């Protein structure tokens, strides 16, 4: 059995000749959408006669939902509604990537489409100018599903030297990290940083601050770029929240949150109010923080490896073992933002920002439930 991905062993230099052929006025538009698993991404490409200037110029399309876990065979056409357009860092200008919402043939929202409801909530709270920043952790695997760069038999040295590391004996897969970063910048994704993580072959990048619905749009497309870059290199990125059992850190997707009041002088008061509201809805949030109602996060939120226990809510300044952390600088300046450390790496950012806005930013309880 070969452990080398076919894709990575193709001659990439040869590819360049064809990619640089002129394409006239035609534009290749790749539609990207979330499949029935709520985690996987799918894509397909079509030609447009001219370059779309905005997402409004890109027509609706459809796909076979019976092949993506999104419909039954007898009525399988699902609709793709373009919502956010990016430059394509693989086929280059003028070609585009477009993130889509999925609707049923009746134009009802598909089960795995959490964007629709998220957008409604973001509309309701838009006066608060909600900003989000998410820290996407992920693990690189070989196509044999073993962490990339780990010995075939046995384990690397214990955790300690890997976080923010440099060197061939500790930073595994930097090519992917750097290519992905450049690809995100080219595409127009608001990527704000990257670092090597505590477990070897685990990395993080940050997207944000993004306002409202933009958070989910940009994070989902950044994940697509990650998978696509990995494909070129013949490795796989997994968002499994605990890819290796034992004394190895899991992978989360911390969310940083603020409203205009929190960012203004004395905003800490508003941060504390939001944390109080969150403390009353711990169980509800845990159900939304991974795609399987908390089952995936159970393996990660153990109270060890810089996590809080899945069963308890806690908060504190500079405390990385708490559910909610107030960054030290925010504690000192008495304004800024807070961090919820509970979301799993494979969470849906639409679902997470949606529940966050409902809990912390909608006024009364009635209001928060009105959109059910
Ligand atoms: P950590 O110390 O938790 O590792 P990072 O530097 O990895 O923090 O990530 C911080 C995140 O917080 C970034 O995504 C950034 O965009 C986001 N962020 C910064 N300021 C704000 C703010 N005022 N509101 C919301 N998010 C913010
Ligand atoms: Mn971070
Ligand atoms: Mn991290
Ligand atoms: Mn963090």
From TrEMBL:
It catalyses: L-glutamate + NH4(+) + ATP = L-glutamine + ADP + phosphate + H(+). Its EC number is 6.3.1.2. Residues 290-309 have a biased composition (Basic and acidic residues). Keywords: ATP-binding, Cytoplasm, Ligase, Nucleotide-binding. Residues 27-107 form the GS beta-grasp domain. It is found in: Cytoplasm. Residues 114-372 form the GS catalytic domain. Gene3D superfamilies: Glutamine synthetase, N-terminal domain, Glutamine synthetase/guanido kinase, catalytic domain. GO terms for cellular component: cytoplasm. Residues 42-71, 290-316 are annotated as: Disordered. GO terms for molecular function: ATP binding; glutamine synthetase activity. It is an enzyme of class 6 (ligase). GO terms for biological process: glutamine biosynthetic process. Belongs to the glutamine synthetase family. This is Glutamine synthetase. The gene is LOC107548798.
């Amino acid at each position: 059995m070969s452990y080398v991905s076919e894709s990575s062993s193709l001659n990439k230099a040869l590819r360049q000749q064809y990619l640089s052929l002129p394409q006239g006025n035609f534009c290749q538009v790749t539609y990207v959408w979330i499949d029935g698993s709520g985690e996987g991404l799918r894509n397909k490409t079509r030609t447009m006669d001219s370059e779309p200037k905005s997402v409004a110029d890109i027509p609706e399309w459809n796909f076979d939902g019976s092949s993506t876990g999104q419909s039954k065979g007898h009525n399988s056409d699902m609709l793709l509604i373009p919502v956010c357009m990016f430059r394509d860092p693989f086929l280059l200008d003028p070609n585009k990537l477009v993130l889509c919402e999925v609707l049923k043939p009746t134009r009802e929202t598909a089960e795995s489409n959490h964007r629709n409801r998220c957008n409604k909530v973001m509309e309701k709270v838009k006066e608060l100018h909600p900003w989000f920043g998410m820290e996407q952790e992920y693990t690189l695997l070989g196509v044999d599903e073993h962490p990339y760069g780990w010995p075939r038999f046995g384990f690397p040295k214990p955790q300690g030297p890997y976080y923010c590391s440099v060197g061939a004996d500790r930073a595994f897969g930097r090519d992917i990290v750097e290519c992905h970063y450049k690809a995100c910048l080219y595409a127009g994704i608001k990527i704000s940083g990257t670092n090597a993580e505590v477990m070897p072959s685990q990395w993080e990048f940050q997207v944000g601050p993004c306002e409202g619905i933009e958070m989910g749009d940009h994070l989902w497309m950044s994940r697509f770029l990650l998978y696509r870059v990995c494909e070129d290199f013949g490795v796989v990125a997994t968002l499994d929240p605990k890819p290796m059992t034992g004394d190895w850190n899991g992978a989360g997707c911390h969310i940083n949150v603020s409203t205009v009041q929190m960012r203004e002088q004395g905003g800490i008061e508003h941060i504390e109010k939001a944390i109080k509201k969150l403390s009353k809805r711990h169980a509800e949030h845990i159900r939304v923080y991974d795609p399987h109602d908390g089952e995936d996060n159970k393996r990660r939120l153990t109270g060890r490896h810089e996590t809080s226990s899945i069963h308890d809510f806690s908060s504190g300044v500079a405390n990385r073992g708490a559910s909610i952390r107030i960054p030290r600088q925010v504690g000192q300046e008495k304004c800024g933002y807070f961090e919820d450390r509970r979301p799993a790496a494979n969470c849906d950012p639409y679902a997470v920002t949606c529940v966050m806005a409902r809990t912390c930013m909608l006024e009364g309880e009635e209001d928060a439930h009105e959109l059910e």
